[in-house]
Each structure stands twice: as C-alpha cells, then as structure tokens.
Specification:
The chain is α/β, with parallel strands linked by helices. The protein contains eight helices and ten strands. It has helices at 6-16, 47-56, 70-77, 99-117, 141-154, 177-188, 203-206, 232-250; strands spanning 21-25, 60-65, 84-86, 123-126, 130-134, 160-164, 167-171, 192-197, 214-218, 227-229.
C-alpha cells in the first residue's frame, strides 16, 4: 500500500473543505503509464472509478488537461463521466481550432515529415493544434537529440515550443495548460484547485496556482509544485484519499 507524504495527508482535509473544488489532472504519466505506442496508454486500474466518485461529490469538478487532442484523449482513455475536457494544451477548450490555424499546422507537418523520416524510430504526430516530434523509440540518443534540435531550428519562430519527455511539440497557438486551468477555475468559480502533472508543460499550471491550492508533481525532477508523489500508485492513493476526505466532510 502506498503511503502518502505527510504534507499531502495534512493538506487533503483542508482541500476537501473548499467548495467549489476543481480537481484537474494531466493524463499521460499521471493517470496512464507512458507508452511507446500512445494509443496503448490506458488508465491504470482504479483510475476510472475514483475519478467518477470524485465527480459525483457536490461542488466538485473533475477536469482532464492534456497535450493530446480531446478526441484522442477520450478515445484512448475510454473515460466517461461529467468531466471537463481540455486538449492540445488548452487550445481545444470550447471546440475545434480555426481553419487558418489548422492550415498552419498542416504546413508545419509537411516541413517536419522528411526530417523525422530520416531518423529511424522517430515518429511525427499531428495534433489538432500542434505537431509533435517523438524520439522515445530512437535507440541512437545522439541522433534523437539532433533531430529535436533540427526540428526546433526549422520551425517558424512564431510557433510555441513545448519540450517534453523525448518529445518536442510545436504549437500554432500560444495556449498553455496554465491559462486553461485559470479559465476553468473562473468558469466553475473554484475556491481551490488540485492539479497533478508530471511533465514540463504542467509547470505552467503549477506556476499559476494560488496559496490555498495544491499542485502535485508526479515523479522526479525540479518543479514549482508544492507537493510530490513518486509514481502512478501514489496518484491513485492521493485521489482515493481525497475521495475519502470529501466523503467524511459530506457525512
């Protein structure tokens, strides 16, 4: 059984007392293990159930905030429920992106495709508002680093660069997860926010949280989050403990 850090155990009852409460989380690396094949990144056992229980509490909104497109996130996760869905690092919030931006995305993909094809194991992913160069499966790590550098240099300087774990994402909008969570908070009138994330793009959220909020980094690395769990087992333990705290408050 995963034991939560003392600061999290102490923080959860205080968080559970806040209404409305926004519980927002990244998907890959938080609710699902990172996979070489992104379509295989299904939620960890127990995740769907605990998210549904959290969303069923009065005054609690559960949101999934991902770099994936919303359609991809919903299809891959298989999650259903009264959740808020934010995709493409916030670019997909109230619907698909504009046709002009989609055209810029497609032009970018055309430029990057030959670079990616020249590096064995690399993969090009075209998302609704960005193009991502993946090098997780490139065995030659020097070649992987060189590809990411060439992709960065060949892209239009006006594009938003979002480096991550073995990936460089080039977005045609300046939306980020931080601004998306600020917007979510405003829309639901949240008195407090819990956010869980594992990657560099999640730091945009940790940087905009208020003093009474709780940002949780999943895994190692420098972070602006105020708390940390080691792995996905820690995520499930945290969400389960929050559900318990919300139930105790209701009782």
């Amino acid at each position: 059984m995963t034991v939560l850090p003392a600061e999290l155990t102490a923080a959860l009852p205080r968080l559970a007392a806040q209404r409305p409460l926004l519980v927002a989380t990244d998907y890959d690396g938080v609710l699902a293990r990172l996979r070489d094949d992104p379509s295989a990144a299904v939620p960890e056992p127990g995740v769907a159930e605990v998210l549904a229980r959290l969303a069923a509490h009065d005054g609690v909104t559960v949101a999934l905030v991902s770099g994936r497109g919303v359609a991809d996130l919903q299809a891959t996760s298989g999650l259903t429920g009264p959740f808020r869905w934010v995709g493409s690092h916030g670019a997909e919030f109230d619907g698909p992106i504009a046709a002009e931006l989609a055209g810029r995305r497609d032009a970018l993909a055309t430029v990057l495709a030959p670079l990616v094809a020249s590096t064995p194991g690399a993969r090009l992913e075209v998302k609704p508002a960005s193009v991502a160069v993946h090098v997780r499966q490139v065995t030659d790590r020097a070649a992987a680093a060189d590809l990411l550098a060439r992709a960065r240099e060949s892209a239009d300087p006006s594009l938003t660069r979002k480096p991550g774990k073995d990936v460089l994402e080039l977005a045609v909008t300046d939306a980020d997860k931080g601004s998306a969570v600020v917007r979510l908070r405003r829309e639901v009138g949240a008195a407090a926010v819990l956010y869980l994330g594992d990657d560099l793009t999640d730091e945009d959220v940790f940087g905009v949280l208020d003093t009474g909020d709780l940002g949780v980094k999943v895994g190692p690395g420098e972070t602006r989050a105020t708390a940390r769990v080691d792995d996905l087992e820690g995520v499930l333990a945290l969400l389960t403990a929050l559900d318990d705290a919300l139930g105790n408050r209701a009782g």
